[in-house]
Design a protein that fits this description.
globular
């Protein structure tokens, strides 16, 4: 694939804010994708296995590098290098998928799994593009499109779990299939909202839909967590590695984080007029010198004041900072050849990066407090029925929070 060739994206543009923690999350996801692919390839395909191992090592190196970053310049260098590596990895995934569809490749990687991982790689590419370009343009229905992407991811997870369980695990298979159907339905509903809300702000029915999505994601997150515990304790019969169960659980947690940012007003469905300065180079240097409070003040017109007061301090630090940084192009290893990227101005998030795990802990504590006031909370450690989720929803569909 030529570096000058424009990619036709099949996934939505990620919503802001974007920062180092977001990049670190996705680098780890890609690293594990390489490991999963390698484990499912036929042993005679040594060249493909070597490629998967090379990608694993490259993303592992990128993850270690991300942990040691100390300034915006190094962050943007990481973004550029990751873009080159990611394009190679995406092409590799698609090539494996096409070989399987043409019956030219065996192994134990589901074609849908390869497509699933390719979609996530493409989403990560769009995220990196957005970080480099620094342009934020949210049209009506952007939140719906984001939900459509993640709801399909959750539906895929349920299907993979179902098909990797031993046939004797009838109850767990039935539970996984129920989740698959539920998220398929929510995915289709999200597509409908994506179409209906183009050019329009949020409506009450869409806000109710987001509540329904949160309830479903909370339950499947708990299901994945329970499955991981059973695998590690050797109490589940199947082919699911504990790392895969942990992998899909972390993606559910990430989706919950995104939903929370939507509810807190950090992600908006309307065009962010206050961010139009990203197109003006002369303005970039001025904005780069502003502190976090000043940035929030400039964006105040795009948020309701009551929403701004609710925003978690940790999430405020994920607001974008505009900055012009020269980016040197570094080479990817000989085994995984990178593409040369055009240099231009871009932005980086302001302030010290906050570990996404800590943010999630605060969010999930908040969720548990809300859930306990309206419904019975699932006790995954002490309850005798901890693997039975029917009737244990955090909230009935369509029911408002108190």
């Amino acid at each position: 694939m030529s570096s000058r060739q424009l990619m036709s994206y099949m996934v939505p543009e990620p919503l802001e804010p974007l920062n180092l923690e977001e990049v670190k999350f996705w680098i780890r996801i890609m690293e594990e994708h390489a490991l999963f692919i390698k484990s499912g390839l036929p042993c005679e395909c040594e060249d493909l296995i070597d490629d998967a191992q090379a990608f694993y090592q490259e993303f592992e190196s990128s993850r270690v590098r991300a942990e040691r970053l100390q300034n915006d310049k190094k962050f943007m260098e990481l973004v550029t290098d990751t873009q080159a590596l990611l394009k190679e990895f995406y092409t590799y995934k698609r090539e494996l998928l096409h070989r399987m569809l043409e019956c030219k490749l065996g192994g134990y990687n589901f074609p849908l799994l390869l497509d699933h991982m390719a979609r996530e790689a493409q989403y990560f590419m769009r995220l990196l593009d957005k970080i480099k370009n620094g342009k934020v343009a949210l049209s009506g229905g952007a939140k719906a499109q984001e939900n459509v992407f993640w709801l399909r991811i959750m539906a895929d997870h349920a299907k993979f779990i179902s098909h990797l369980l031993d046939p004797s695990e009838r109850n767990l298979i039935q539970t996984a299939n129920s989740f698959s159907q539920e998220f398929d339905d929510l995915y289709l509903q999200g597509r409908d909202f994506s179409s209906m809300l183009q050019g329009y702000p949020e409506v009450a029915s869409f806000k109710r839909f987001l509540q329904d999505v949160r309830a479903a994601v909370l339950r499947i997150r708990d299901f994945k967590r329970a499955a991981e515990e059973m695998i590690r304790d050797c109490r589940l019969v199947g082919l699911i590695p504990a790392l895969l169960a942990d992998h899909v659980r972390r993606e559910a947690d990430h989706f919950l984080l995104i939903l929370t940012m939507m509810e807190k007003g950090i992600m908006k469905n309307t065009t962010a007029a206050s961010l139009e300065y990203c197109d003006e180079p002369s303005t970039l240097s001025t904005i780069a010198d502003l502190d976090t409070d000043s940035m929030l003040g400039m964006m105040k017109s795009d948020r309701e004041e009551e929403e701004e007061e609710e925003v978690l301090p940790e999430l405020k630090e994920r607001e974008p900072k505009a900055e012009e940084v020269p980016v040197p192009q570094e080479k990817v290893s000989n085994k995984v050849k990178g593409f040369k990227e055009k240099k231009h101005s871009h932005f980086e998030s302001k302030g010290k990066a906050v570990e996404e795990k800590l943010v999630l802990e605060d969010i999930l504590i908040e969720e548990e407090e809300d859930i306990s006031s309206t419904s019975q909370v699932i006790d995954t450690k002490n309850s005798d029925s901890k693997y039975k989720w029917s009737g244990k929803w955090p909230r009935q569909l369509g029911k408002k929070k108190d």
